[in-house]
Amino acid sequence: MTSPEILKYTQQTGDFSRMLDSVPYAKWIGLQCDRFGDDLIFRLPVKEENLGNPILPAIHGGVIGGFMEMSAAIYLMMSQDTLRMPRIIDFSLDYLRAGLNRETYAECHLTRQGNRVANVMISAWQKSRSQPIATARAHFLLED
Fold first, then answer.
1. Surface-to-core class of residue 143, CB atoms within 10 Å of its CB (0-12 exposed, 13-18 middle, 19+ buried)
2. What distance in Å separates the CA atoms of residue 144 and residue 141, rounded to the nearest whole number?
3. For the chain, how far is it from start to end, CA to CA, in angstroms?
4. pTM
């Protein structure tokens, strides 16, 4: 799991490479993150190991879900200036169309934050933001 030093470095510099390399699943699927001002855009590159249906070819649904959940957790850490990975409470995912073997993007929005729980909306797309391949809602526990 990510250490507080790596998280602090990422928050100060905006360089996500160390943090993403320290999370085994993020590293395995190839998760990448770019900062544009205050916005974070997450990227899932084309990778043969991420395919679930090689005939289409399409990305495995579990990889899409894991990509979106991991994106939401990282987004929450960066937007809340916390040095701990938030704990997932609930994750609800709607697959809207096939995630073909293309670079995939995700964007997160904090919809509500209480003292202990935060709600995040996630949208994933490939060609156009207006045609998402999946949307999700996640609830995270901020402190235990």
1. exposed
2. 7
3. 17
4. 0.92
